[in-house]
Design a protein that fits this description.
- The chain has 251 residues and is of the alpha/beta class.
- The protein has a single domain, classed as SGNH hydrolase (Rossmann fold, 3-Layer(aba) Sandwich), CATH 3.40.50.
- Helices cover 50% and strands 11% of the residues.
- The chain has a five-stranded parallel sheet, with helices on both faces.
Amino acid sequence: MRLKLNLWLTALFLAGMTVTSGRADEALPPIKVLLIGNSQCPTIVSQQLLEKLAASDKGGRPIKIGGCIKGGASLKSHWDAGTGEGSARAMIASKAWDYVVLQDIYFVQEPAFQPYARQFQALIKESGSKTLLFGTASILSDYPKGFERQHSLHFAMGKELGVPIVDASYAYIKYFGDKPSTERLESLFAKDKAHPGLWGSYLYSCMIYSAITERSPIGLAAPEAIPADVVKTLQETAWAQHQETSAALKK
Protein backbone atom coordinates (compact mmCIF):
# COMPACT_ATOMS: atom_id res chain seq x y z
CA MET A 1 0.00 0.00 0.00
CA ARG A 2 2.78 2.43 0.93
CA LEU A 3 4.60 1.66 -2.33
CA LYS A 4 1.45 2.42 -4.34
CA LEU A 5 0.97 5.71 -2.48
CA ASN A 6 4.58 6.74 -3.12
CA LEU A 7 4.26 5.89 -6.80
CA TRP A 8 1.05 7.95 -7.01
CA LEU A 9 2.66 10.98 -5.36
CA THR A 10 5.69 10.65 -7.63
CA ALA A 11 3.46 10.58 -10.68
CA LEU A 12 1.69 13.75 -9.56
CA PHE A 13 5.02 15.49 -8.97
CA LEU A 14 6.31 14.51 -12.40
CA ALA A 15 3.10 15.79 -13.94
CA GLY A 16 3.70 19.20 -12.37
CA MET A 17 0.83 18.85 -9.89
CA THR A 18 0.74 19.60 -6.18
CA VAL A 19 -1.11 17.89 -3.39
CA THR A 20 -2.94 20.14 -0.91
CA SER A 21 -5.49 19.66 1.79
CA GLY A 22 -8.31 22.03 2.70
CA ARG A 23 -9.04 25.37 1.04
CA ALA A 24 -6.31 27.02 -1.03
CA ASP A 25 -6.45 30.28 0.95
CA GLU A 26 -5.75 28.41 4.19
CA ALA A 27 -2.26 27.68 2.87
CA LEU A 28 -1.53 31.38 2.45
CA PRO A 29 -0.34 33.19 5.58
CA PRO A 30 -2.13 36.48 6.26
CA ILE A 31 -0.46 39.82 5.60
CA LYS A 32 -0.30 41.38 9.07
CA VAL A 33 -0.91 45.12 8.96
CA LEU A 34 -0.59 47.61 11.82
CA LEU A 35 -2.55 50.83 11.29
CA ILE A 36 -1.21 53.82 13.26
CA GLY A 37 -3.43 56.85 12.99
CA ASN A 38 -6.41 58.84 14.21
CA SER A 39 -10.12 59.37 13.58
CA GLN A 40 -9.66 59.07 9.81
CA CYS A 41 -9.28 55.30 10.29
CA PRO A 42 -11.97 53.73 12.55
CA THR A 43 -14.44 52.78 9.80
CA ILE A 44 -11.69 50.89 7.98
CA VAL A 45 -11.23 48.77 11.10
CA SER A 46 -14.80 48.52 12.44
CA GLN A 47 -16.24 47.40 9.11
CA GLN A 48 -13.23 45.20 8.28
CA LEU A 49 -12.98 46.82 4.88
CA LEU A 50 -9.42 45.68 4.19
CA GLU A 51 -10.03 42.15 5.41
CA LYS A 52 -13.11 41.83 3.19
CA LEU A 53 -11.29 43.15 0.15
CA ALA A 54 -8.58 40.56 0.68
CA ALA A 55 -11.03 37.74 1.35
CA SER A 56 -12.80 38.42 -1.95
CA ASP A 57 -9.55 38.45 -3.96
CA LYS A 58 -9.18 34.84 -5.11
CA GLY A 59 -5.55 35.29 -6.11
CA GLY A 60 -4.48 37.22 -3.04
CA ARG A 61 -3.56 36.60 0.58
CA PRO A 62 -5.74 37.21 3.63
CA ILE A 63 -5.11 40.37 5.65
CA LYS A 64 -5.06 40.68 9.43
CA ILE A 65 -5.37 44.19 10.89
CA GLY A 66 -4.11 45.61 14.17
CA GLY A 67 -4.45 49.21 15.20
CA CYS A 68 -3.07 51.96 17.38
CA ILE A 69 -5.74 54.55 16.60
CA LYS A 70 -6.41 57.59 18.76
CA GLY A 71 -8.69 60.52 17.98
CA GLY A 72 -6.79 63.68 17.14
CA ALA A 73 -3.44 61.91 17.17
CA SER A 74 -0.47 62.91 15.04
CA LEU A 75 2.69 60.95 14.37
CA LYS A 76 4.36 63.28 16.86
CA SER A 77 1.88 62.46 19.62
CA HIS A 78 2.11 58.74 18.85
CA TRP A 79 5.90 58.96 19.13
CA ASP A 80 5.84 61.09 22.26
CA ALA A 81 3.53 58.54 23.93
CA GLY A 82 6.67 56.48 24.52
CA THR A 83 7.12 52.74 24.51
CA GLY A 84 4.61 51.55 27.09
CA GLU A 85 2.21 48.70 26.47
CA GLY A 86 -0.24 49.50 23.71
CA SER A 87 1.81 52.38 22.32
CA ALA A 88 2.60 52.60 18.62
CA ARG A 89 6.31 52.18 19.29
CA ALA A 90 5.78 49.11 21.45
CA MET A 91 3.49 47.51 18.89
CA ILE A 92 6.02 48.10 16.12
CA ALA A 93 8.87 46.73 18.26
CA SER A 94 6.91 43.50 18.82
CA LYS A 95 7.94 42.51 15.28
CA ALA A 96 4.46 41.10 14.68
CA TRP A 97 3.74 42.97 11.45
CA ASP A 98 4.48 42.75 7.75
CA TYR A 99 3.41 46.36 7.12
CA VAL A 100 3.02 49.40 9.34
CA VAL A 101 0.74 52.11 7.96
CA LEU A 102 1.56 55.62 9.22
CA GLN A 103 -1.24 58.21 9.08
CA ASP A 104 -0.72 61.75 10.33
CA ILE A 105 -3.30 64.40 11.17
CA TYR A 106 -4.77 66.25 8.19
CA PHE A 107 -3.34 69.71 9.02
CA VAL A 108 0.23 68.56 9.66
CA GLN A 109 3.03 70.72 8.25
CA GLU A 110 6.55 69.72 7.20
CA PRO A 111 8.35 70.56 10.51
CA ALA A 112 5.98 68.32 12.47
CA PHE A 113 5.71 65.58 9.85
CA GLN A 114 9.19 64.90 8.51
CA PRO A 115 11.12 64.13 11.75
CA TYR A 116 8.53 61.66 13.01
CA ALA A 117 8.03 59.96 9.67
CA ARG A 118 11.78 59.38 9.62
CA GLN A 119 11.93 58.13 13.20
CA PHE A 120 9.01 55.75 12.73
CA GLN A 121 10.52 54.49 9.48
CA ALA A 122 13.82 53.71 11.23
CA LEU A 123 11.97 51.80 13.97
CA ILE A 124 9.81 49.93 11.47
CA LYS A 125 12.83 48.97 9.40
CA GLU A 126 14.65 47.77 12.52
CA SER A 127 11.66 45.61 13.43
CA GLY A 128 11.73 43.91 10.03
CA SER A 129 8.45 45.40 8.82
CA LYS A 130 7.70 47.60 5.81
CA THR A 131 6.43 51.17 5.98
CA LEU A 132 3.40 52.54 4.15
CA LEU A 133 2.72 56.29 4.36
CA PHE A 134 -0.99 57.06 4.33
CA GLY A 135 -1.82 60.56 3.11
CA THR A 136 -5.51 61.09 3.79
CA ALA A 137 -7.73 63.80 2.37
CA SER A 138 -7.97 67.08 4.23
CA ILE A 139 -11.23 68.58 5.49
CA LEU A 140 -13.67 69.68 2.81
CA SER A 141 -13.39 73.39 3.68
CA ASP A 142 -9.67 73.14 2.84
CA TYR A 143 -10.26 71.81 -0.69
CA PRO A 144 -8.18 71.77 -2.82
CA LYS A 145 -5.25 73.46 -1.04
CA GLY A 146 -5.12 71.07 1.91
CA PHE A 147 -5.41 68.05 -0.36
CA GLU A 148 -2.47 69.24 -2.44
CA ARG A 149 -0.45 69.82 0.74
CA GLN A 150 -1.15 66.27 1.90
CA HIS A 151 -0.03 64.90 -1.45
CA SER A 152 3.17 66.96 -1.52
CA LEU A 153 4.18 66.05 2.05
CA HIS A 154 3.68 62.33 1.60
CA PHE A 155 5.05 62.12 -1.92
CA ALA A 156 8.28 63.88 -0.92
CA MET A 157 8.72 61.68 2.15
CA GLY A 158 7.90 58.52 0.21
CA LYS A 159 10.55 59.50 -2.29
CA GLU A 160 13.11 60.23 0.43
CA LEU A 161 12.51 57.04 2.40
CA GLY A 162 11.93 54.83 -0.61
CA VAL A 163 8.56 53.62 0.66
CA PRO A 164 5.12 53.45 -1.01
CA ILE A 165 2.40 55.95 -0.21
CA VAL A 166 -1.38 55.85 -0.14
CA ASP A 167 -2.11 58.99 -2.15
CA ALA A 168 -5.71 59.31 -1.02
CA SER A 169 -5.78 63.10 -1.21
CA TYR A 170 -5.17 62.96 -4.95
CA ALA A 171 -7.60 60.05 -5.28
CA TYR A 172 -10.30 62.28 -3.78
CA ILE A 173 -9.43 64.99 -6.29
CA LYS A 174 -9.55 62.46 -9.12
CA TYR A 175 -12.94 61.19 -7.94
CA PHE A 176 -14.33 64.73 -7.70
CA GLY A 177 -13.34 65.56 -11.25
CA ASP A 178 -13.44 69.01 -12.85
CA LYS A 179 -15.95 71.48 -11.43
CA PRO A 180 -17.57 69.00 -9.02
CA SER A 181 -21.02 69.69 -7.60
CA THR A 182 -21.53 70.21 -3.88
CA GLU A 183 -23.18 66.79 -3.74
CA ARG A 184 -20.16 65.17 -5.35
CA LEU A 185 -17.75 66.92 -2.98
CA GLU A 186 -19.72 65.94 0.11
CA SER A 187 -20.28 62.33 -0.99
CA LEU A 188 -16.96 61.06 0.38
CA PHE A 189 -17.34 62.79 3.76
CA ALA A 190 -19.27 62.21 6.95
CA LYS A 191 -21.80 64.83 8.01
CA ASP A 192 -19.08 66.91 9.69
CA LYS A 193 -17.32 67.26 6.31
CA ALA A 194 -14.04 66.54 8.06
CA HIS A 195 -13.95 62.76 8.42
CA PRO A 196 -14.48 60.21 5.67
CA GLY A 197 -17.93 58.74 5.30
CA LEU A 198 -18.38 55.14 4.24
CA TRP A 199 -17.60 55.95 0.61
CA GLY A 200 -14.43 57.81 1.56
CA SER A 201 -13.33 55.05 3.94
CA TYR A 202 -13.88 52.48 1.22
CA LEU A 203 -11.78 54.53 -1.20
CA TYR A 204 -9.05 54.69 1.47
CA SER A 205 -9.24 50.93 1.94
CA CYS A 206 -9.00 50.17 -1.77
CA MET A 207 -5.89 52.34 -1.99
CA ILE A 208 -4.26 50.77 1.07
CA TYR A 209 -5.02 47.33 -0.35
CA SER A 210 -3.39 48.15 -3.67
CA ALA A 211 -0.38 49.77 -2.02
CA ILE A 212 0.24 46.68 0.12
CA THR A 213 -0.46 44.01 -2.47
CA GLU A 214 0.08 45.74 -5.84
CA ARG A 215 -3.24 44.16 -6.82
CA SER A 216 -6.28 45.88 -8.28
CA PRO A 217 -9.36 46.33 -6.07
CA ILE A 218 -11.63 46.37 -9.12
CA GLY A 219 -14.33 43.73 -8.77
CA LEU A 220 -13.63 43.01 -5.11
CA ALA A 221 -16.05 43.12 -2.17
CA ALA A 222 -17.75 46.31 -1.06
CA PRO A 223 -20.30 47.25 1.62
CA GLU A 224 -23.88 46.68 0.47
CA ALA A 225 -24.72 50.25 1.48
CA ILE A 226 -22.64 51.63 -1.41
CA PRO A 227 -24.44 51.56 -4.79
CA ALA A 228 -22.82 49.28 -7.37
CA ASP A 229 -22.03 52.09 -9.80
CA VAL A 230 -20.34 54.08 -7.03
CA VAL A 231 -18.35 51.02 -5.95
CA LYS A 232 -17.06 50.60 -9.49
CA THR A 233 -16.02 54.27 -9.71
CA LEU A 234 -14.31 54.20 -6.30
CA GLN A 235 -12.40 51.03 -7.18
CA GLU A 236 -11.33 52.36 -10.56
CA THR A 237 -10.29 55.68 -9.04
CA ALA A 238 -8.23 53.99 -6.33
CA TRP A 239 -6.43 51.73 -8.79
CA ALA A 240 -5.75 54.50 -11.30
CA GLN A 241 -4.35 56.82 -8.62
CA HIS A 242 -2.25 54.04 -7.10
CA GLN A 243 -0.68 53.24 -10.46
CA GLU A 244 -0.08 56.90 -11.24
CA THR A 245 1.55 57.66 -7.88
CA SER A 246 3.64 54.48 -7.88
CA ALA A 247 4.99 55.28 -11.33
CA ALA A 248 5.85 58.85 -10.27
CA LEU A 249 7.68 57.63 -7.16
CA LYS A 250 9.91 55.41 -9.30
CA LYS A 251 11.09 58.27 -11.55
